[in-house]
Amino acid sequence: MYKNKKVVVVLPAYNAALTLERTYREIPFDLVDEVILCDDHSNDNTLELGKQLGIRHCIRHEQNKGYGGNQKTLYNKALEINADIIIMLHPDYQYTPKLIPAMVNIIGEGLYPVVLGSRILGVGALQGGMPLYKYLFNRFLTFTQNILVGYKLSEYHTGYRAFSRTVLETINYNENSDDFVFDNEMLSQIIYHQFHIAEISCPTKYFDEASSINFRRSTIYGLGVLRVSCSHLLQKLGIAHFSLYKNKLTKS
After folding, report:
1. Mean pLDDT value of segment 112-118
2. Which residue has the higher pLDDT, 211 or 101?
């Protein structure tokens, strides 16, 4: 608990058996109340390992639903168990759990309802092993998104995120893609609904066991990101209307 707010960490897992325990052991359980693991139909023993580690809420998809589909399951479950602060942490150990206290503090003190762990703040992205083409894609897409969306972030592509319950109750994330562009659709929704976003510097770690998409998938993702940003602009200008921007609470 943080000031009577329930803190829940959600782990979107796919073939994470080699890194799950290392990630889990670094979660600060003096602050975190619950962990939810969703295994997206892995080919390894991710689910069994999660249960052995004592994760109370272990979910398995009977067929692979994709990165976005995995997050939908996790956020729905987090709301179901009355989470107040929700941290999405990749179990591949690419993002350090040691930043969780800072993220919880920012949301728990009411400073910001959303916190991103940015790999771009500072100078460590390339030193941490981020491939050069991914770094250049990241910078180009972020620059373009800031212009189209009308916001200013150092990067839109981090997978390390924390949300207040109010955010997840408001944005229509279940309408989003089941693929990797889910993350960008979610940020677009958050900005559209005028939730402010904090960023904290996050170390970059690329290694063999960490999950990562290849050049072809990165290109498809990049095109999807540009589509989302253009949709955001059209929605904001009232030229077009998209269901993902509906407010879940008001249905409008």
Report:
1. 97
2. 101
What secondary structure, in 3-state letters, does the chain show?
A: CECCECEEEEEEECCCCCCHHHHHHCCCCCCCCEEEEEECCCCCCHHHHHHHCCCCEEEECCCCCHHHHHHHHHHHHHHHCCCCEEEECCCCCCCCHHHHHHHHHHHHCCCCCEEEEECCCCCCCCCCCCCHHHHHHHHHHHHHHHHHHHCCCCCCCCCCEEEEHHHHHHECHHHCCCCCCHHHHHHHHHHHCCCCEEEEECCCCCCCCCCCCCHHHHHHHHHHHHHHHHHHHHHHHCCCCCHHHCECCCCC
Residue 74 clears pLDDT 80, i.e. is over it: yes
The average pLDDT across 229-242 equals 96
∠ CA 38-75-57, nearest 5°, is 40
> What whole-number distance in Å separates Cα of residue 156 and Cα of residue 152?
10
- All domains of the chain in start order, with CATH: 7-245 (3.90.550.10)
